[in-house]
Amino acid sequence: MEFEAIIGLEVHAELSTKTKIYCGCTTEFGGEQNTHCCPVCMGLPGALPVLNKEVVTYAMKAGLALNCEINKETYMARKNYFYPDCPKNYQITQDETPLCTNGYIEITTDEGVKRIGIQRIHIEEDAGKALHREDGTYVDFNRSGVPLIEIVSKPDMRTPQEAKMYLENLKAILQYTEVSDCKMEEGSLRCDANVSVRPKGSTEFGVKTEIKNMNSFKAVEKAIEYEIKRQIEAIKRGEKIVQETRRWDEAKGETVVMRSKEEAHDYRYFPEPDMVYLVVDDAWIENVKNTLPELPDKKRARYISEYGLPEYDASILTSSKALAVYFEDVVKEGASPKDASNWIMGEVLRTLNDREMSIEDIKVQPKHLAKLIELINNGTITGTIAKKVFKDMFESGDDPEKIVKEKGMVQISDENAIRDIVNKVLDENPQSVADYKAGKTKAMGFIVGQVMKASKGKANPQLVNKLVEEELQKR
Amino acid sequence: MSVTIRDVEYVAKLARLEFTEEQKQKFTEDLNGILNYVEMLKEVDTENVEISIGAYRVENALREDVVKPSFDREALLKNAPDAQEGFVKVPKVIE
Amino acid sequence: MHTKTIHEIRELINKGEVSCVELTKNALDRINKIDDKIGAFLQIDEEGAINKAKEVDEKIRRGEEVSFLAGIPMAIKDNICVEGLKTTCASKMLENFVAPYDAHVTKLLKQNDAVILGKLNMDEFAMGSSSENSAFKKVRNPYDLERVPGGSSGGSAAAVAAGEAYYTLGSDTGGSIRQPASLCGVVGLKPTYGRVSRYGLVAFASSLDQIGPFTKDVEDCAHVLKAIAGYDEMDSTSAKKEVEDYTKYLNKDIKGLRIGIPKEYFAEGLNDDVRKEIENAIEVLRKLGAEIKEISLPMSKYALAVYYILASSEASSNLARFDGIRYGYRAKEFEDVVDLYVKSRSQGFGDEVKRRIMLGTYALSAGYYDAYYKKALKVRTLIINEYKKAFEDVDVILTPTSPTVAFKIGEKSNNPLEMYLSDIYTVPINIAGVPAISIPAGFVGGLPVGMQLIGNYFDEGTLIKVGHAFERETEFSKVRPSI
Ligand SMILES: [Zn+2]
């Protein structure tokens, strides 16, 4: 029997507001423990929550970018559970009335473009951070009350790859809209997956498990893959899948049981009586709409049609907002889109990858990259030299013109000077000259290489080719 | 609806409370007494009635996104039964 | 001195006949002398009070203008935070909790140069109608020490009645200001929901709680309300409405004012002697020119049921934060973190608190939410609508505050439902969120009887107007217990 998987994702994204959702404490990451706290976010007796307006704006922005409907009248709700990092022992969230519903994200699969539904987006507060040490658990409430949106997809994904693509697109959209910086390593983007399997062709859903603790998109993909396999094998063995929460163990590469349904929480949701109705009017929604930037899908299409970039390059360049901005800045500084794309897709991303850095960390300013391209195009330096200059720029952040000047890397285009080097090389390599004369054209490449080397890469390659051929003919 | 000792045990677990057998018995009786009284609400027709969150309708109590100074940590933690190195400490939690 | 009202004392201070320090020492002496018998105070801040009194005396000496309440000794229910003082909620759970911040009302009182004598006893976490549920000691009625002062703000009512403080603050979730005011023969006002900020009030039931004043008479009440009312950006449910000068409603006549008498509040369950006193009070108002109209509020009979579901459910969640981790009582021995929660909460909370947490948790738990909580929220809508409608025809509604006078200590403590029934006339007002005041209106067997005046939303002014008219015509607010 063939099986298919049903995958739904719940993503928590931290919003880029300056302050927490219900108090004026800063959301800045990395302060000393319990120094970004007050009676409200520490859950002191008598303290009360007041909703941060910007949280609503950001959540609506995400909703609109993800093609959702905005619910004009909503209210907050309490979700009751005891945990040491939850200072009030309830979380203020939304239950029956999420702010946004019924949206979608498009992904490109082998079968074409596929729509993954988004069931709801609601606003809520984050919990504190529990550090588990040998002698006990230490709690830091700096993160308590940091605003989150929870984005719940419909169970529309069928493969781990689709799940990964959904996440990548979602992340790009949240970054484009500046709703969230989506830094998984700082916990500002988190993902849980609901996975079930069923015989292919069946329309009923199987029993699902929830998987937690996946710390990267790669981990999400691997965990879902593992879980699908586990469930299929269990069914083949005649076992029943039980509804439970499982944890992804990265080291072991498997999912392990956290809690079963019997221990599942009874969250006792009810409308938050400390807060009031949240009503958004058309003007507010319109305002948010007007601040929406060009989203990745549109941008990609534009890069293809307007700049003539290949689809693959356009996809890569638009995969993160920072990268697209970088690319567009290089173009703005005068580079042709194709040159800019080639350089970014090539040298820039390769070097960043090697160093495990991201585009946000690069020292090379867009105007400098544009100038480097200009130096090649106007014949000041050769492509080979350009790569060397780029390496230098990457380390120092310096202007390429300055590097070229200081290091004497300007291209030699003086025919006589190059002809001298060519003749010197030919004199030193009689065997290669003989080989060439004997019809081994490969020898020519070797000679050109030697000339370039002798000129320290500065000789104009076209001239070198031409002069080597001329001089060989003479011999 | 009648509350049983098992219900009381379930609810106690949710509320993080524990009781002696005798207390459980007493709470079962008390809860049944109160819930019996509350049964009268069933006779009220609420078919097309909206819920009221609060005594009257208030909309949009919102705050601007402006950072306020946080609280002094000492002051926040001075009532904590076990605060160490600026953390609140609890017995080790195993997930 | 201790029998005087705030407005009488203000005059003495203004004339230079008494200093604030004298006044404060006097109040502290009174507390030291009689509070062993009354049990109103849980904490006395002698030093803070004297220092503040000195400061105010100094201001007066310099000729600075001071507030009406400046230098007048007062005290605060122990569920309202005063920075640096304990806020215990009369619970073992918070026995050692020192508030690190001021409640909004505390800030306002400090701005008014109030002399804060200390913190007042109450039913644990404001849950009760007799003040017998304090984890530390019972409060006794100054008119009869064998009887309860009412609750949950029993300490606040008794302290004013016994002359230990010139005014006090309490909180009212289902009658916790008005019922003890009635039983102790003082004036107690529950403002419109949202009129006074709840920031810094340890929440019992967020959608019902409201802070209000206890005073000896209506005139004082107007002054204190004016000081504590107002919008607070820290409380989402606080009203943005401007605060009126309530003193402008004093000394007004009430000719033609329409007073509604809801027949449901005079039915079975009301003590006959109490009824007679209230009927006499109605006659007084009629003679002053008010138009008395019988009205009907049939939904009122469901209010208590709605109240017990909403209040307990909200409480079960509000009190979850008391877990022995960030503050409060922590059990000495426990096995793990769950056991720490269970033991700390089971040892730290008293029986009545646990009973309400259990009821509320049950009402919210899976499968019961719609039948209980949601149903109660819908019936609440109907009760609100009924009050709104009633106020189309009348300006004020008059009822007894409590069906009986003060009962004996221990009389109802074994039957929760019977105890709950003593709030039957006050609870609907919290459900609707309208303001109401209890005013001394008679005596039965030497024990005070209170009359409740209920006003339209944010119409505390009319309550002051009617109450003050009644007060000028009668002597009940001038009676003091013999202690
Ligand atoms: Zn805070």
SSE blueprint:
The complex is a heterotrimer of chains A (475), B (95) and C (483).
Chain A: E1 3-14, E2 51-52, H1 53-65, E3 69-70, E4 73-74, E5 77-80, E6 90-93, E7 100-109, E8 112-125, E9 129-133, E10 136-140, E11 147-153, H2 160-176, E12 189-199, E13 209-214, H3 217-236, E14 244-249, E15 254-260, E16 270-271, E17 278-279, H4 282-291, H5 296-307, H6 311-318, H7 321-332, H8 337-354, H9 366-377, H10 383-396, H11 400-406, H12 415-428, H13 430-437, H14 442-454, H15 461-474
Parallel strand pairs in A: 13-14
Antiparallel strand pairs in A: 1-11, 1-12, 3-7, 4-17, 5-6, 5-16, 7-8, 8-11, 9-10, 12-13, 14-15
Helix pairs in contact in A: 1-4, 2-3, 5-6, 7-8, 7-9, 9-10, 12-14, 12-15, 13-14, 14-15
Chain B: H1 5-14, H2 21-38, E1 62-63, H3 73-77, E2 83-84, E3 87-90
Antiparallel strand pairs in B: 2-3
Helix pairs in contact in B: 1-2
Chain C: H1 6-15, H2 20-38, E1 41-44, H3 46-61, E2 73-77, H4 104-111, E3 115-120, H5 154-161, E4 167-172, H6 178-184, E5 187-190, E6 210-215, H7 218-228, E7 258-262, H8 272-287, E8 291-295, H9 303-318, H10 337-348, H11 351-364, H12 370-393, E9 396-400, H13 416-421, H14 427-432, E10 436-444, E11 447-455, H15 460-473
Parallel strand pairs in C: 2-3, 2-4, 7-8, 7-9
Antiparallel strand pairs in C: 1-3, 4-6, 5-6, 5-10, 9-11, 10-11
The complex binds zinc ion.
Residues 20, 23, 25, 37-38, 40-41, 145 of chain A line the site of zinc ion.
Write a structural description.
The complex is a heterotrimer of chains A (475), B (95) and C (483). Chain A folds into 3 domains: 3-287, no CATH class; 296-406, no CATH class; 415-474, Arc Repressor Mutant, subunit A. Helices cover 40% and strands 21% of the residues of chain A. Chain A has helices at residues 53-65, 160-176, 217-236, 282-291, 296-307, 311-318, 321-332, 337-354, 366-377, 383-396, 400-406, 415-428, 430-437, 442-454, 461-474; strands spanning 3-14, 51-52, 69-70, 73-74, 77-80, 90-93, 100-109, 112-125, 129-133, 136-140, 147-153, 189-199, 209-214, 244-249, 254-260, 270-271, 278-279. In chain A, the strands form 4 sheets. Chain A has a 9-stranded mixed beta sheet. Chain A has a 3-stranded antiparallel beta sheet with strand order 6-5-16, with no helix packed on it. A two-stranded antiparallel ribbon of chain A has the order 4-17. In chain A, a hairpin with a 2-residue loop joins strand 9 and strand 10. In chain A, helix 5 (296-307) packs across helix 6 (311-318). Chain A is elongated and about 95 Å long. Chain B starts with a helix and ends in a 5-residue tail after the last strand. Chain B is built from 3 helices and 3 strands. The relative contact order of chain B is 0.08. In chain B, a hairpin with a 2-residue loop joins strand 2 (83-84) and strand 3 (87-90). By secondary structure, chain B is mainly alpha-helical. Chain B has helices spanning 5-14, 21-38, 73-77, and strands spanning 62-63, 83-84, 87-90. Chain C has a domain at 6-255 and 455-478: Amidase signature (AS) domain (Amidase signature (AS) enzymes). Helices cover 39% and strands 13% of the residues of chain C. Chain C starts with 5 loop residues before the first helix and ends in a 10-residue tail after the last helix. By secondary structure, chain C is an alpha/beta fold. The mean pLDDT of chain C is 97. Chain C has an 11-stranded mixed beta sheet with strand order 1-3-2-4-6-5-10-11-9-7-8, sandwiched between helices. Chain C has helices at residues 6-15, 20-38, 46-61, 104-111, 154-161, 178-184, 218-228, 272-287, 303-318, 337-348, 351-364, 370-393, 416-421, 427-432, 460-473, and strands spanning 41-44, 73-77, 115-120, 167-172, 187-190, 210-215, 258-262, 291-295, 396-400, 436-444, 447-455. The interface between B and C is large, with 51 and 72 residues. Bound molecules: zinc ion. Zinc ion binds at residues 20, 23, 25, 37-38, 40-41, 145 of chain A. Zinc ion (ZN) binds at residues 20, 23, 25, 37-38, 40-41, 145 of chain A. Chain A: This is Aspartyl/glutamyl-tRNA(Asn/Gln) amidotransferase subunit B. Chain A: Belongs to the GatB/GatE family. GatB subfamily.
